[in-house]
Write a structure and sequence with these properties.
This is Sentan. One of its GO terms (molecular function) is calcium-dependent protein binding. InterPro entries: EF-hand-dom_pair, EF_hand_dom, S-100_dom, S100_Ca-bd_sub. Pfam families: S_100. The protein is mostly helical. The protein has 2 domains: about 1-35; about 40-110, no CATH class. It contains 7 helices and 2 strands. It has helices at about 5-10, 20-35, 45-55, 55-60, 65-75, 85-95, 100-105; strands at about 40, 80. It has a two-stranded antiparallel ribbon. The longest helix has 16 residues, at about 20-35. It is flat and about 45 Å long.
Length: about 110
């Protein structure tokens, strides 16, 4: 597979884009690289993708009830698949409860 950075570089519209645009494009590319031809992920694939690509945000969250609820919903034996919109909701939910988010918020920018 082609590295995400190389995929990003190939998108001409992103060459003069903001950091936020690049970050969002990266999320889309990571998702699309894992999704099936219909653009969806199984719950097992979703859990694996979160663990490999979002591990620093979910690290240490295992004992939080909301985290357990989210992960247990992915562990259910079901043929339901996750689309991009649902994946983004998962990312936002996990990021909002993460201890890493608070650490990031506390970083002072220097000029």
């Amino acid at each position: 597979s082609i590295p995400i950075a190389k995929q990003l570089a190939s998108i001409q519209a992103l060459r003069k884009s903001s950091e936020l645009e690049k970050a969002f494009a990266t999320m889309v590319l990571v998702y699309n690289n894992s999704a099936d031809p219909e653009g969806k992920l199984s719950k097992t694939e979703t859990k694996s993708l979160l663990q490999t690509q979002f591990g620093h945000f979910i690290q240490g969250q295992e004992n939080k009830p909301k985290y357990q609820e989210i992960i247990s919903s992915l562990d259910e034996e079901s043929e339901n698949k996750i689309d991009f919109e649902d994946f983004m909701i998962l990312l936002v939910s996990l990021a909002l409860m993460s201890d890493l988010l608070q650490e990031i918020k506390n970083v002072k920018s220097t000029k």
